[in-house]
């Protein structure tokens, strides 16, 4: 659809062209997480089902933590946005765009918690989707005060479910289907376990605990699509192409996969396969292992090395001779320790490299770097353990990327809820869990003021069991290896350190 009047995208604008585009549908989904990925993935899938008359429901999007301008801007556009899918699929070029109409409105959990709880009172509500980063599904000890939002996502979910339970007096048929899209192994089970702990912490009624267990369904999932988000560098081009302004333009690749371990009831209520979505029902273990290790792992491997070496996107990394050699070395370390057939692994790795070279995609390394400490823990730390066990030595490329990550978290100052890093005079935001940010700020300042050596800094960071789930100092030779690479990066810069490493 091309409108050609250069106005802001909203209901009034597109109804001038086609009044059947925006349908008045019930709000069947509440979604915790307002980011690019969900708009280019789940909200697109729901839109596809709606267009075919298969789902007939809309999404209430909740911004769970910060109080930025996202939700007001989204509501100004009546929840509408344009999704542009560009890439190579089955050897053919795909370049298409469509207006997504599945979002009804947005809410901010911090200052609109009462409105979020009103959604829990809805007869039509059936699903909870979430993407709060890997760090979002984690236990945080916190207080519960009725009418106030808990700080963590599991806490918010528990309070939301308790409000629904109270509203409907524990009715058997008012439970919800909870579909976490965070890239966490056994994400549904882990989320449910934290909800159980919240119920115990807050001494909520046993009847509520029983209702959560018996009448709510927590799904395990695996998500896969590269969504690069807002095209900030090409915004004028896209606004001219579309003929209207859109503050939520979202760009992704055509490829997608959604693996869900759920029963027949969920399949009937969420008919993704009937809408042509690439969904895999049943055990997600084999899909997760290959995807996390061979797609997400290389992303995390390359982001800090590539960015600090002077490039900005995944494609630029893959087109840079030295950085590509580094990434290839990382693949050679990851592939042997990934479960699955050699043929399947090699084919997936080949496809990943093609996706990384998508000529239409600007996948910014700084976007990959959001909350990347937990990403490293989830995606690459298991590879270090497996490689050491199988090969008897550390994977040098992954250890190099670990050191680069620690250097990426070296701040020059604090700004609001971010640390600010510096790359050759260019500043970048470091977004991470507050406790992690405080730790890195404190420890890098000690290095700067000669209160700690680089090795002492590495020992302190690696010892944080709350971050890593273990004391990484116990891994053979890891402290010395990481310390060496951090010192090299500090002394010679990233580009020269990569060059020396490859020799």
Automatic annotation (TrEMBL):
<dbReference type="InterPro" id="IPR036291">
    <property type="entry name" value="NAD(P)-bd_dom_sf"/>
</dbReference>
<dbReference type="Pfam" id="PF01232">
    <property type="entry name" value="Mannitol_dh"/>
</dbReference>
<keyword id="KW-0560">Oxidoreductase</keyword>
<protein>
    <submittedName>
        <fullName>Tagaturonate reductase</fullName>
    </submittedName>
</protein>
<dbReference type="InterPro" id="IPR013131">
    <property type="entry name" value="Mannitol_DH_N"/>
</dbReference>
<feature type="domain" description="Mannitol dehydrogenase C-terminal">
    <location>
        <begin position="283"/>
        <end position="489"/>
    </location>
</feature>
<dbReference type="InterPro" id="IPR013328">
    <property type="entry name" value="6PGD_dom2"/>
</dbReference>
<dbReference type="Pfam" id="PF08125">
    <property type="entry name" value="Mannitol_dh_C"/>
</dbReference>
<keyword id="KW-0520">NAD</keyword>
<dbReference type="InterPro" id="IPR013118">
    <property type="entry name" value="Mannitol_DH_C"/>
</dbReference>
<feature type="domain" description="Mannitol dehydrogenase N-terminal">
    <location>
        <begin position="28"/>
        <end position="273"/>
    </location>
</feature>
<dbReference type="InterPro" id="IPR008927">
    <property type="entry name" value="6-PGluconate_DH-like_C_sf"/>
</dbReference>
């Amino acid at each position: 659809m091309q409108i050609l009047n250069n106005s802001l995208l909203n209901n009034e604008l597109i109804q001038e062209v086609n009044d059947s585009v925006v349908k008045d549908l019930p709000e069947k989904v509440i979604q915790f997480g307002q980011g690019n990925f969900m708009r280019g993935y789940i909200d697109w899938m729901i839109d596809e089902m709606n267009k075919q008359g298969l789902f007939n429901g809309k999404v209430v999007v909740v911004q769970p933590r910060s109080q930025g301008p996202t939700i007001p801007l989204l509501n100004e556009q009546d929840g509408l946005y344009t999704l542009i899918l560009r890439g190579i699929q089955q050897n053919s070029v795909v370049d298409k765009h469509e207006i997504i109409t599945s979002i009804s409105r947005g809410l901010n959990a911090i200052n609109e918690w009462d409105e979020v709880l009103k959604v829990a009172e809805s007869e039509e509500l059936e699903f909870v989707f979430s993407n709060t980063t890997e760090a979002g599904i984690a236990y945080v000890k916190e207080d519960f005060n009725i009418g106030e939002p808990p700080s963590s996502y599991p806490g918010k979910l528990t309070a939301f479910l308790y409000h629904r339970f109270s509203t409907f007096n524990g009715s058997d048929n008012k439970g919800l289907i909870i579909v976490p899209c965070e890239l966490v192994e056994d994400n549904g089970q882990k989320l449910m376990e934290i909800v159980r702990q919240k119920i115990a912490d807050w001494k909520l009624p046993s009847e509520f605990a029983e209702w959560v267990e018996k009448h709510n369904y927590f799904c395990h999932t695996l998500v896969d699509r590269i969504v690069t988000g807002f095209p900030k560098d090409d915004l004028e081009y896209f606004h001219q192409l579309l003929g209207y302004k859109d503050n939520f333009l979202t760009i992704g690749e055509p490829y997608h996969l959604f693996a869900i371990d759920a029963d027949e009831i969920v399949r009937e209520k969420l008919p993704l396969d009937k809408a042509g979505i690439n969904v895999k029902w049943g055990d997600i273990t084999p899909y997760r292992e290959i995807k996390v290790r061979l797609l997400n792992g290389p992303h995390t491997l390359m982001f800090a090395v590539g960015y600090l070496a002077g490039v900005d996107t995944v494609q630029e990394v893959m087109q840079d001779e030295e950085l590509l050699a580094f990434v290839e070395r990382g693949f050679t370390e990851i592939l042997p320790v990934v479960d699955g057939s050699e043929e399947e692994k090699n084919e997936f790795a080949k496809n990943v490299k093609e996706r990384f070279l998508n000529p239409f995609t600007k996948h910014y390394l700084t976007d990959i770097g959001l909350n990347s400490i937990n990403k490293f823990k989830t995606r690459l730390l298991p590879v270090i353990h497996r490689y050491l066990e199988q090969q008897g030595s550390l994977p040098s490329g992954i250890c190099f990327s670990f050191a680069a990550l620690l250097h990426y978290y070296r701040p020059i100052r604090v700004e609001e809820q971010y640390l600010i890093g510096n790359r050759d005079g260019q500043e970048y935001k470091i977004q991470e869990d507050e406790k992690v940010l405080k730790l890195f700020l404190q420890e890098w300042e000690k290095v700067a003021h000669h209160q700690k050596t680089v090795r002492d800094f590495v020992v302190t960071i690696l010892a944080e069991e709350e971050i890593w789930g273990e004391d990484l100092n116990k891994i053979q030779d890891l402290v010395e290896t990481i310390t060496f690479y951090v010192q090299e990066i500090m002394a010679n810069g990233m580009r020269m350190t990569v060059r020396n490493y490859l020799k």
